[in-house]
Design brief:
Oligomer: heterodimer
Main location (chain A): membrane
Helix content of chain A: over 70%
Protein name (chain A): ABC transporter permease
Keywords (chain A): Cell membrane, Membrane, Transmembrane, Transmembrane helix, Transport
Helix content of chain B: over 70%
Order of helices and strands of chain B: HHEEHHHHHHHHHHHH
Strand content of chain B: under 5%
Number of strands of chain A: 2
Strand content of chain A: under 5%
Largest interface: A-B, 105 and 98 residues
Shape of chain A: globular
Number of helices of chain A: 13
Distance between the termini of chain A: 21 Å
Order of helices and strands of chain A: HEEHHHHHHHHHHHH
Structural class of chain B: mainly alpha
Largest sheet of chain A: 2 strands, antiparallel
Subcellular location (chain A): Cell membrane
Number of strands of chain B: 2
Membrane topology (chain A): Multi-pass membrane protein
Structural class of chain A: mainly alpha
Chain lengths: 286, 281
């Protein structure tokens, strides 16, 4: 504890936090418990919930076809995170090494897409690659023929959409770490004859480890549950876990199965977060 | 400052990459903006504001805009009040409550949106609440609360406690100190938190899509449904308007502390108070 000002002695002030605590409990904690409960319930005849307990939803959630979709989603989330990390490190290096006035411009330039509505960004991307869009015009004038429908609905486009969407979550923490980084270390390494690659691996990366892992979590977690991007850019063939859960909830109206699938996803994510904290905690202790 | 001098340039490849990525991020948006100002008639391309006029003449879209504004306003007022109260209440407290709150706000920040959405949907169902703008507002407050708390808290930790001590020495009670000293000092952060939660609410698609009532779409939900049908200059115009609004808000937000909470830039290197602290060390 830093300073024990007179503030810390006041007990009345803490009561200010109670309404928010209640709100959190009622609209975050309880709903999560409800999902866990629903995942053990039975689907009603017309799509409602019947409170007859069963583990059947889980045995379905663990069936091969559903696990296959989970695996695809994990693969995509992992690739997205990796690509964001590689791009993010180089981008934030260039951003933080720029003169002070340029740095604010770069931060804004990276932040603006992040604050822009996801649906709009996806829409813009579809205009870009779609029928009679600039990409088609350029490619046809170069003599490359292609089917605009194939181009606007595929796996690569989903991957591209994911990377461009989640990049700011990686760049901004890394940039924050670079801001505090002592650049004289880079100078020293340069004086000792190290090239950019060597500097990156042995001087910069060890200092970025914390920002890199938190950035990785910020990218990996939402990309595993992503719904909008595969839905709008992937076409019907590219089903991912987020889409699967949403289909179960909104289209098949099988809430118990949808809940079981999400409990599975949450558990996986919690495991990852847990490992992350244990590793980080161990480092603090050392 | 010393650390400003010693920033050797990044390798050229990193600089090129930065610009290439920025170009790729903005190219589609630029094309969309351009598309909303162009009209193609008999092979002739001309500039027009026609599509914007159509957006404003569309009762459906204007209804969605009204819903978005209504939900944004209500939810950001509520989350600003609750979030500010919680941040002030827990500040410097060593109570267990603080840990519990931090844990819960972590959950709301890192859990995938889809889990958030369907857990609220199930809960509203169990509570037998009718889906409508009220459930959307509740959902939006729930996810923007943590952002307000973070924003206000980041300002609280920079406050000089001697100001409060001085007020107390002069005989001010707890609530007077809060009202006349702390809240005025927090004003920029509170305003920032309010704008931020409004923006989060205005931009939210997925959670709204799950918990809104029939026929009560917000603008992003409307855009999503329309987009399923394909692209059109009118949708370009609508998207452009929403993009420009975000740009406008970002320019405003840039001056507020919430920007630094969200975007990790160390406030201290720019802030007067911060450098004073450094000198004292």
């Amino acid at each position: 504890m830093k300073s024990h000002g007179p503030l810390s002695e006041s007990h009345s002030r803490i009561s200010l936090a109670f309404p928010t605590l209640l709100w959190f409990g009622f609209f975050i904690l309880v709903p999560l418990l409800i999902v866990a409960a629903v995942s053990l319930a039975t689907r009603g005849t017309y799509g409602g919930i019947e409170w007859t307990w069963t583990v059947e939803n889980y045995s379905r959630a663990f069936s091969l076809s559903y696990l296959g979709i989970l695996f695809e989603s994990l693969k995509l989330a992992f690739l997205t995170t990796l690509s964001c990390a590689v791009l993010g490190i180089l981008m934030s290096w260039a951003m933080s090494a720029a003169p002070a006035s340029h740095r604010h411009f770069y931060v804004c330039a990276v932040a603006l897409p992040f604050l822009t509505n996801l649906v709009i960004r996806i829409y813009a991307l579809r205009v870009f690659v779609g029928y009679e869009g600039p990409l088609q015009v350029v490619l046809t004038s170069l003599g490359v023929s292609f089917d605009p429908f194939v181009l606007s609905q595929n796996k690569f486009l989903v991957f591209y959409g994911m990377v461009t969407t989640y990049l700011p979550f990686m760049v901004l923490p890394l940039y924050g770490a670079f801001e505090k980084f002592d650049f004289s270390l880079v100078e020293a390494a340069q004086d000792l004859g190290a090239g950019p690659w060597k500097i990156l691996v042995s001087v910069i990366l060890p200092n970025l480890r914390k920002a890199l892992t938190s950035g990785a979590l910020l990218v990996f977690i939402p990309s595993l549950g992503e719904y909008v991007i595969p839905d709008l850019l992937g076409g019907a063939k590219n089903m991912l876990y987020g889409n699967l859960i949403t289909e179960e909830f909104l289209k098949s109206r099988n809430w118990p199965l949808g809940s079981a699938l999400s409990v599975l996803m949450i558990s996986l994510l919690l495991m990852i977060v847990f490992i992350y904290y244990r590793k980080n905690g161990a480092k603090h202790g050392a | 400052m010393a650390h400003e001098r010693s920033r050797p340039a990044a390798p050229l490849s990193a600089k090129i990459l930065l610009w290439v990525v920025l170009a790729l991020l903005y190219l589609p948006i630029a094309v969309m903006l351009m598309g909303s100002f162009l009209e193609v008639k008999e092979g002739q391309v001309s500039a027009t504001l026609h599509w914007f006029v159509e957006v404003f003449a569309d009762d459906n879209l204007m209804g969605a805009l009204k819903n978005s504004l209504l939900v944004g306003l209500f939810s950001s007022v509520l989350s600003t009040l609750l979030g500010t109260a919680a941040a002030v209440g827990l500040y410097r407290s060593s109570s267990r409550l603080r840990g519990v709150m931090e844990g819960l706000s972590m959950v709301s920040l890192i859990f995938p949106e889809i889990v958030f959405a369907l857990s609220l949907l199930s809960w509203f169902f169990v509570l037998k609440m009718e889906m409508g703008l009220q459930t959307v507002i509740i959902a939006h407050v729930s996810f923007s609360l943590s952002y307000v708390m973070m924003t206000v808290n980041s300002r609280l930790v920079t406050l000089d406690s001697s100001l409060e001590d001085a007020a107390r020495d002069l005989g001010a009670g707890e609530w007077t100190v809060l009202r006349t000293v702390i809240l005025p000092l927090l004003k920029p952060a509170i305003v920032g938190g309010f704008i931020l939660s409004f923006l989060l609410s205005f931009d939210d698609f997925l959670i709204t899509y799950f918990v809104n009532g029939v026929g009560q779409d917000t603008l992003p939900v409307k855009l999503y449904t329309a987009m399923k049908m394909g692209v059109s200059p009118k949708l370009n115009a609508l998207s452009s308007l929403m993009f420009l609004m975000t740009l406008f808000v970002l320019i405003f937000l840039f001056r507020s502390p919430s920007f630094y909470v969200l975007f990790g830039e160390s406030k201290k290197s720019r802030d007067g108070n911060g450098s004073k602290e450094k000198e004292n060390l």
